[in-house]
Specification:
- This protein is an alpha/beta fold.
- A five-stranded parallel sheet has the order 4-3-5-6-7, sandwiched between helices. It has a five-stranded parallel sheet with strand order 9-8-10-11-12, with helices on both faces.
- It starts with 10 loop residues before the first helix and ends in a 17-residue tail after the last helix.
- The structure holds 6-O-phosphono-alpha-D-glucopyranose.
- It catalyses: D-fructose 6-phosphate + L-glutamine = D-glucosamine 6-phosphate + L-glutamate.
Length: 367
């Protein structure tokens, strides 16, 4: 497929900007906005009968899996295990009868994820895959395919494939919750409206690009950067750190905000920027109290939150990034945008090869 950058300087930036459209397309194939229901075409298993879901992936797709664990537990009340494919395949994981093994992969060709899929199939698990490449090996070999409709992703560091994976995982979590009797019709309708509005909220998030870019100079001078989050935004903190490492070559770590006192707080000084992902939601106050611990030790915080969240902390544009107010289910998709843009603008300032970072491959088809 021939794809060009259009008016954008890099494929990565073009792909970041495509997200409202491709997430909308992906959600569109799982939602019926008129009936306000989630519909998963051609399910080959009964969600009521699942004993467990094992989510397996690598890289950014692995962080999508981690986020989905919060959703599947919360909405569908299914036991969930999340695994890195290269670890899973060399352990002796105990698989339960009636388990679903779900493999998440942009390319559908990642060697470790494919090996894990073959292992689970041989173990008698139901296998399914969330893939962006419809003709991929994983799509051919799994019992069921849940496609993402991100279109070809050229930038080596995944962006739009990630948010499309999240869109599918959010829809599945609700569909399974409905099938298992944990979500009634009214709640389903409300959640479908939340999902349906995600593309608009993502467009609003893109409008913060200049504000995000204004923090890139500080980041580009840092040797280490920390990302903190809680709940489903904790894996997003991991993804933020991964994006920054991949394309700007700055060392970054994502941490569960409540865990900083068990290590990373020792790193805090005025030279370590700390990105705090704190949407207004049930865990806001908890995350903010961790932010205060960082500030008390001289840490330089950039707070990502909504207008109300930022104002409640007396912060300004100089030390925050304003996002639209969103439902907790939508926050990892919406906050992915400033996380990606921050890595992007930092890398551009550092002059790295954003679309093809050194030593990395788009698809790792050898072990
Ligand atoms: C490589 C890419 C990442 C991607 C990972 C998993 O490391 O650089 O962006 O997340 O592979 O790829 P997959 O195609 O399985 O999602």
């Amino acid at each position: 497929v021939m794809v060009d950058k259009g008016n954008h300087r890099h494929f990565m930036l073009k792909e970041i900007y495509e997200q409202p459209t491709v997430v909308g397309q992906t959600l569109g194939s799982y939602l019926d906005p008129l009936a306000e229901t989630v519909t998963v075409p051609g399910l080959c298993f009964d969600p009521k009968a699942l004993s467990r879901i094992t989510l397996i992936a690598c890289g950014t797709s692995y962080y999508a899996a981690m986020i989905a664990q919060y959703w599947l537990e919360h909405y569908a009340k299914i036991p969930v295990t999340v695994d890195i494919a290269s670890e899973f395949r060399y352990r002796q994981p105990v698989m339960t009868r009636g388990g679903l093994s779900l493999f998440i992969s942009q390319s559908g060709e990642t060697a470790d994820t494919l090996a894990a899929l073959r292992h689970c199939k041989a173990e008698g698990q139901i296998t399914a895959t969330i893939v962006n490449v419809a003709q991929s090996t994983m799509a051919r070999e799994a019992d069921m395919v849940f496609p993402t409709h991100a279109g070809p992703e050229i930038g080596v560091a995944s962006t739009k494939a990630f948010t499309c994976q999240l869109a599918v995982l959010a829809a599945l979590s609700i569909a399974f919750g409905v099938a298992r009797g944990h979500i009634d019709q009214t709640e389903q309708a409300a959640l479908v409206r939340v999902l349906n509005e995600i593309p608009s909220r993502m467009s609003e998030a893109l409008q913060a690009e200049q504000q995000v870019a204004s923090h890139a100079a500080d980041l580009s001078r840092a040797r280490d950067v920390l990302y903190l989050g809680r709940g489903a935004d904790y894996p997003l903190a991991l993804e933020g750190a991964l994006k920054l490492k991949e394309i700007s070559y700055i060392h970054a770590e994502g941490y569960a905000a409540g865990e900083i006192k068990h290590g990373p707080i020792a790193l805090i000084d005025p030279n370590v920027p700390v990105i705090v992902i704190a949407p207004k939601g049930p865990l806001f106050e908890k995350t903010i109290s961790n932010m205060e611990e960082v500030i008390a030790r001289g840490g330089k915080v950039i707070l990502m939150s909504c207008k109300e969240g930022i104002a409640s902390q007396g912060r300004t544009a100089g030390n925050s990034i304003e996002m639209p107010a969103v439902h907790p289910l939508a926050s990892p998709l919406v906050y992915a945008i400033p996380v990606q843009l921050l890595a992007y603008h930092t890398a551009v300032l550092k002059g790295t090869d954003v679309d093809q970072p050194r030593n990395l491959a788009k698809s790792v088809t050898v072990e």
